Amino acid sequence: MAATSLLVLLLAVCQTASAFVTPLTRTIQNTQHVVNVPPSSSSSSTTQLHMEVIECDVAIVGGGPAGCTCALYTSRADLSTVILDKNPASGALAITSHIANYPGVDRSMAGSELLEQMKVQAVEYGTRYERAQVFMLDVTSEETGDDVYTKCVYTPDLTVKARSIVLATGAMGRVGKPFPGEKEFLGQGVSYCATCDAAFYRDEVVAVYGVSTEAIEEALFLTKFAKMVHWITPVCISKDSESGLERNKLLDQDLLEQLYECENVSHLEKTKLVEVVGDMSGVSGVKIKKQGVDEEEVIEVTGAFIYGSGGGSKPISDFCQSKVDLDEDGGVIVDANMKTSRDGVYAIGDIRNTDYKQVVVAASDGCIAAMSIEKFLNNRKNVKVDWIHK
């Protein structure tokens, strides 16, 4: 169904009887907030046309560590909260095999396990969690036609009317078609973040693909752990060629020199990445093809860090549709309170295009946004801290 047709249907639903609207009501049980969703009172004759419309204080798009932390704090602040999560198994934290740098967490814990604990904790305090793909937002009362619920989040299955919106979809987007094997081994040897995963490749052989300053930075970081880093670039950037000198102007010269000085770096120029290969245990190598050579070859590696065509760190902000200001790379621009260019709309985590793509930073963003939202919705002059535990 085209987005326009779906929007017409959604708007029609929003204007139907109030029985179609599900407000998030609260009761207190065992000192924790529990969301009670009353059953629909719609008649059987209208069931087929029914699309649920949820009313809440805070709608969070994205169920990663940033979104779950924000939901935990807003729910504890007695703000009705809904998380809309496209796929809990596909985020940066979910595909991380082990968490070694999150305070208080055993380093053997998988990212998916930590994320599940975060989600459960938020839900126990009253957050409503929904699996849904968001395709459009309304962020002003002029767009929604509602002076109370001035924001609206549209999905194919339900619509969420809210007083505030939090954008927390992360930055796992990658421009261009993935390489064969890239998706299959994502989180099992394929990574887009050396800072996150380098420690798991101590004394291992890894490959870094990409001709960008980001790829150089990540390769440099990996040299501290891996016994060998194969840096693969599809073009020539060596200083001993005229074309190489021209291309070098696009890269950070100091970082490039540092990388070349590392004894555990092998630079494969004019070499294309063909495929990531492996088995049940994960990545076992990368198949490459050198320019001017007919045969393909496989380099044995246990990790493949890919930074070609966006590198897997592109902010997922396409659904925003110019509703908030973005930087040149698609990151949502925010202030110190995580507020975007629109009142009542906040952005947290890697969607901000931050250089510090860490779980602890994302969680911190969620906390800041939640406290800012509580202040905004209650017209407070100062932030109310969450020191008194219920």
Descriptive report:
This protein has 390 residues and is an alpha/beta fold. Helices cover 23% and strands 24% of the residues. Strands 1, 4, 5, 6, 7, 8, 9 and 18 form an eight-stranded mixed beta sheet that branches. Strands 10-17-11-12-13 form a five-stranded parallel beta sheet, with helices on one face. Strands 14-15-16 form a three-stranded antiparallel beta sheet, with no helix packed on it. α2 runs parallel beside α3, α2 runs parallel beside α9 and α6 packs parallel to α8.
Keywords:
390 residues, 23% helix, 5-stranded parallel β-sheet, alpha/beta, elongated, disordered N terminus, 24% strand
DSSP summary, beta strand count:
18
Apparent shape:
elongated
Category by helix and strand content: alpha/beta
Radius of gyration computed on alpha carbons: 24 Å
The overall average pLDDT, rounded, is 82
Distance, first to last CA = 46 Å
**H/E series, N to C?**
HEEEEHEHEEHEEEHEHEHHEEEEEEH
Helix fraction by DSSP (H/I, runs of at least 4): 10-25%
Low-confidence stretches are: 1-20, 25-49, 241-247
Assembly state of the chains shown = single chain
Tally of alpha and pi helices: 9
**Main beta sheet, described?**
8 strands, mixed
Report the portion of residues in β strands.
15-25%
Describe the structure in brief.
With 390 residues, the chain is α/β, with parallel strands linked by helices. Helices cover 23% and strands 24% of the residues.
Summarize the topology:
Layout (H helix, E strand, L loop, with lengths): L2 H12 L6 E3 L1 E5 L2 E5 L15 E10 L3 H12 L4 E5 L25 H14 L3 E4 L4 E3 L2 H4 L6 E4 L3 E10 L22 E2 L2 H4 L7 E5 L3 H10 L5 E5 L9 H7 L4 H9 L3 E4 L2 E9 L2 E9 L6 E4 L2 E4 L38 E3 L11 H19 L13
Parallel strand pairs: 1-4, 4-5, 4-9, 5-6, 9-18, 10-17, 11-12, 11-17, 12-13
Antiparallel strand pairs: 2-3, 7-8, 8-9, 14-15, 15-16
